[in-house]
Design brief:
heterodimer, A: 325 residues, mainly alpha, two-stranded antiparallel sheet, 2 strands, B: 117 residues, alpha+beta, 2 helices, 21% helix, 45% strand, globular
């Protein structure tokens, strides 16, 4: 009898050990959210997933000025990075979503993105034995609007980065982590360049809405935040983007107008050179910054130093110049 | 003699805040921290992400500082140590920056021992 008990216990232990190594199913909300994020099941055509536009290699942003979604339909705004959203207080360029959960569902229903009504998405997930089981395990419920949003948002909240050369310099006090040029750039960022006045905080955004001068009511006619608030003062305002990993999230601005960081800095140096007839441009940008070429380069070098090491390693393998922070 | 005592007090208080301090995890899971350095500079961070830095001075129990936010305006707070000087909080004295004032007033920091880093 004793032998039998020992054999049973041993067999059970082996089974438990094997299942620990072979069970790749997500065991929590974020794990489920990750599956959903990469699964085209949430688009009408079953060809578009969140990751189609939020590409992991590019800090969960897109490389196109505006992304293409369902049936190759073209969006109207640049895909922002889905990383470092934990501390954000509003979502989308115009801030129309107040929570990450609210944000998570919108692209699924958007006709130019995934074009699938949430009710249909839920039916699909309920019919899918894998998802149905996972939702029951994690939420003790079948897929619902709420727990679908909760899962995707939980995954997005895991996409935090805090291991850039800049972080090593500031958090770990490693004075060699960034170059002299990047350090000068940081001083300019906080001073002459005025960048910090909008890009303040742990993710380099004060979570505000600003009109930087990319609206002239003619060719440049996206009125941004005003559509959400109905307030005329908000015309042409967009959410200040996070600058973490900014070197790999080109193109830039709500419309993807600028292809490089150099172009962005040149624009801020004298916005009226690019769009002379801008309407309601922020008072911070009414006068040229008068940054020299070297100063502009220093700011660019500083911005590159905000790239998380996980991306630098990848770029190193591909001999990309991003590593010169 | 008074000057010497004042300088001595200053040094002792300065030494007391030098090092790394952190809040407990907030309900949203965030941890805020400050590193007061010996060269009178400091670094603030949230979840290991630096968000502002600046310089500070200690005068007895009063902390004066400027940082990269709040348009470079100086703030003054009285530091209240407790729990065997392993914890501290800030009492408002002067700060023209409303957002910073709100953050400072509710912050309670605990000293992080070097071997815990």
């Amino acid at each position: 009898m004793r032998k039998f008990i020992i054999v049973v216990i041993t067999v059970l232990a082996i089974i438990a050990l094997m299942s620990a190594f072979t069970n790749k199913e997500p065991i929590n909300k974020a794990g489920l959210g990750k599956l959903l994020f990469f699964d085209p099941i949430l688009s009408a055509s079953r060809t578009v997933s969140c990751a189609t536009c939020h590409k992991p290699s590019f800090a969960f942003a897109d490389t196109s000025a505006v992304s293409r979604g369902f049936k190759n339909r073209k969006g109207t705004r640049n895909t922002p990075t889905a990383m470092n959203v934990l501390l954000q207080t509003s979502f989308f360029w115009d801030g129309r979503a107040k929570t990450l959960e609210e944000q998570a569902l919108a692209p699924i229903e958007n006709p130019v993105e995934m074009n699938l009504p949430i009710e249909q998405a839920l039916l699909r997930l309920q019919k899918d034995s894998k998802y149905n089981e996972l939702f029951k395990k994690i939420f003790n419920s079948e897929p619902t609007r709420e727990n679908l949003a909760e899962s995707i948002a939980a995954f997005e909240r895991t996409l935090e980065t805090s291991d850039s050369p800049f972080d090593a310099w500031k958090f770990s006090d490693d004075s060699n982590a960034i170059s002299a040029s990047a350090k000068r750039g940081f001083v300019l960022f906080n001073g002459k360049g005025k960048c910090v006045q909008c890009h303040f905080g742990a993710d380099f955004t004060a979570n505000e809405f600003r009109n930087i001068g990319l609206f002239n009511a003619k060719k440049w006619n996206d009125s941004g935040r005003m559509v959400v608030t109905g307030n005329k003062e908000d015309i042409g305002k967009f959410k200040t983007a996070s600058l973490r990993n900014v070197a790999i999230t080109a193109p830039y601005m709500h419309n993807g107008k600028f292809k490089t960081l150099k172009e962005v800095i040149q624009f801020y140096n004298d916005p009226s050179k690019i769009i002379p007839d801008a309407v309601n441009r922020d008072s911070l940008l009414l006068k040229p910054l008068d940054l020299s070429k070297t100063e502009q380069k220093d700011i660019e070098t500083f911005l590159i130093s905000l790239t998380d090491k996980r991306f630098i390693t990848k770029k190193k393998q591909g001999n990309n110049s991003l590593i010169k922070h | 003699m008074m000057i010497i005592i004042a300088l001595l007090l200053n040094t002792i208080t300065s030494d007391k805040i030098t090092g790394r301090w952190e809040t407990k995890k907030s309900p949203k899971g965030n941890i805020t921290g400050i590193v007061f350095k010996e060269d009178k500079s400091f670094e603030c961070y949230v979840n290991r992400k630096p968000f502002t830095s600046g310089t500070y001075e200690m005068n007895a129990d009063t902390l004066s500082f400027v940082d990269t936010g709040c348009k470079g305006e100086t703030a003054k707070y009285r530091i209240i140590f407790f729990n065997n000087e392993d914890s501290m909080k800030f009492e408002f004295l002067a700060d023209p920056c409303t957002e910073r004032k709100e953050g400072m007033s509710r912050m309670v920091l605990g000293r992080i021992k070097k071997n815990l880093l």
